[in-house]
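Okay, is this right?
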Amino acid sequence: MAALQIPGAVTQPSWWACLKEDVACVLARDPAARSRFEVWTIYPGVQAVALHRMAHALWARGWRYLPRWLSFMARGFTNVDIHPGARIGRRFFIDHGAGVVIGETAEIGDDVTLYHGVTLGGTTWRPGKRHPTLGNGVVVGAGAKILGAITVGERARVAANSVVIDDVPDAATVVGIPGRVVVRQAPASTSKAGRDINLDHHLIPDPVGKAIGCLLDRISDLEHELKLIKGLAAKDGAVESVCHTCDDTCSQPTFSLSPRPTNGA
């Protein structure tokens, strides 16, 4: 099988070795998994990835119709649509599996977790790189859409139902439509195989609620200043606003100001 060319990713072992790792990672990340037999037989994400690895091996050898047919059959059997051209690293886990779509030029690193309804889609009809690249240890919440030839950095977390259209830094948590970075994690510790995965993608702040709170604080400040002007309030009666010490960028619409490629490459 062709090696996955993602920085930091390890060259792929055999199909059987990858499949055994995929099963083991399900047992490690899903408390509902009771046994290897259960994971082998009734986990659609595992079955979809196993069939994809077969289809991708054929695709890498120049076959076209047969791997597409395998992908088509896998989609009907598992409700997971993975193009055979997509490159997937080791210990890849699709939790529940339903409605996941992974495009042809998508690249996925090692130890990545996707929940149901995730789309790794393209934004152009031009040939070439047009789907996302996910670094090692990325977690993508249910219903999230990651679109275009962008890169999601290692250990990043994408909150459920977010729409990501710009590059995501390493160890960041992304929320919203369009996605914005709201949390930066601490540097990764060097544990066994480097596989510390933060699955707490639900523990995220509310950027909209925070922005509204800041606006209410500013309105309170303005009302107090107006009362001072009218002589209706004492100067020492002001309440310190949290906005005075906040270092967040509530007004910044997106988290990446760098220009995006427009040629689909």
